Amino acid sequence: MINCTRKTTCRICRSSDLIKVLDLGKTPLANSFLQEKELLKQSPRFPLRLYFCSVCSLVQLCDVVNPAVLFKNYHYITSASKPLAEHFRLLGAEVLRRFIKTKKDLIIEIGSNDGALLGSIKKRCRTIGVDPAENIAKAANRKGVKTICAFFSGRLSEKIVRQYGHAKVVIANNVVAHINDLHELFLGVKNLLTADGVFIFEVHWVGNLIGSGGFDQIYHEHLSYFSLHSLNHLAQSVGLTMVDVVLFPVHGQSMRVYVGKTKQRNKSVAAFLTMEKKRGLNKIKTYNTFSKKIEDNKKKLVRLLFNLKKQKKKIIGYGAPAKGNTLLNYFKIDNKIIDFITDTTPLKQGLYTPGTHIPIFAPEKAREERPDYVLLLSWNYADTILKKEKDLQKEGAKFIIPVPETRIV
Ligand code: JHZ
């Protein structure tokens, strides 16, 4: 397979002691939404298998899809999810308050997407975004958010330093998990930072993945599923220090990690590492239990949907997130069960889900069609969506929340 290579050593500690904990079969790429004319062609499928490193505890994929295939033309736009855009606006304000002193200071964001974060702070200091998606970087530049369209690399970090100088802050949200060479990333960031600079990044927390979050966050874009334990290993190996960590409810639960060149650590880091140990995140047994839970939930959700379909109920999907495609493909829920899906992202509307061929429409369609049941694929925004869709519920629609365990609300 030309577009997929296989790694045999751990992405962080380079050990070959990798143990398979979950096999989700071969699935299409989660963000490879299809046009109508592509429906007759078979979407390429790639193995989706999860491994645990018994040395540094990193949970990871070893089948690595070529990043150019995954990210050059991207359908995910941060601003399409209002709660996320607001979250980044608040982060931007915090970064300005805590770390930026003058208008000359520089902030670099890796994986800046449509500029949701940098757009909110660009008037207060110098900002540069880096993003490989050509369609999205172009849109960000059009909005006035200076964006370099490229994959981040050691060479790019040198070029940026030569051209713009060192950065007070480097940000990388929901992108560290996408990067195969984590050592190159961390060394590149170290090169970018001033002596007192800080690297701030947000990643989904593996403790949530195996607890109250969803296994559906596993897809080819996400090569790593981090604990702080594994990240600490990585930071130390490149001579950086984990300074602080905060857990917050985005994508289930994510960690915001602060890394610097200093030797000083906030107490939060030791407390978090202890909590992870207590939760067994460094033990293979914990991940085996998680795999069993997915199978139980699969049976429960599939049985529910088949029974509803037998009763001629109209079922639609809500949200076409990447994660939804892991769930739909692994549970084999397709267009025979789900009539259509609605999504707020204009780029996804008019397309079809990969592998399961469910059409995607703008949100108004749900109100017009009066479904009996709504499978909430964007379950991570359940609170906001349930509040927003009171009318749909008043008209009789029930929402099915599929993870971590199927429930109807
Ligand atoms: P959302 C993304 O995954 C992609 P996804 C990426 N690879 C990554 O790393 C993770 O995030 C962390 C829609 N929506 O944010 C918009 C509605 O329709 O959970 C989005 O398509 N109505 C970068 O794709 C999707 O749901 C709404 O009211 O799994 C949400 O996608 C809201 C709030 C959202 O991430």
Give a written overview of the molecule.
- With 409 residues, the protein is α/β, with parallel strands linked by helices.
- It has a domain at 302-408: Rossmann fold.
- It is built from 13 helices and 19 strands.
- The protein has helices spanning 67-71, 82-99, 134-142, 154-164, 182-192, 206-209, 228-237, 267-278, 284-310, 322-331, 364-369, 382-388, 390-394; strands at 4-6, 18-28, 45-53, 59-61, 63-65, 106-110, 126-130, 147-148, 167-173, 193-204, 224-225, 241-248, 254-260, 315-318, 341-342, 360-361, 373-376, 398-401, 407-408.
- The strands form 4 sheets. A 7-stranded mixed sheet has the order 8-7-6-9-10-13-12. A 6-stranded mixed sheet has the order 16-15-14-17-18-19. Strands 2-3-4-11 form a 4-stranded antiparallel sheet.
- Strand 18 and strand 19 form a beta hairpin.
- Helix 4 (154-164) packs parallel to helix 5 (182-192).
- The mean pLDDT is 96.
- The structure holds ligand JHZ.
Quaternary structure: single chain
Structural class: alpha/beta
CATH superfamily of the domain at 302-408: NAD(P)-binding Rossmann-like Domain
Strand order in space, largest sheet: 8-7-6-9-10-13-12
Give the N-terminus to C-terminus distance in angstroms: 43 Å
Unreliable segments of 5+ consecutive residues:
none
Q: How would you describe the shape?
A: globular
- Name every ligand kind in the structure: ligand JHZ
Helical fraction equals 25-40%
What's the mean pLDDT score?
A: 96
The major beta sheet can be summarized as:
7 strands, mixed
Q: C-alpha Rg, in Å?
A: 21 Å
- Could you name the CATH class of the domain at 302-408? Alpha Beta
Q: Given the structure, what is the number of helices?
A: 13
Instruction: Identify the CATH architecture of the domain at 302-408.
Output: 3-Layer(aba) Sandwich
Count of beta strands = 19
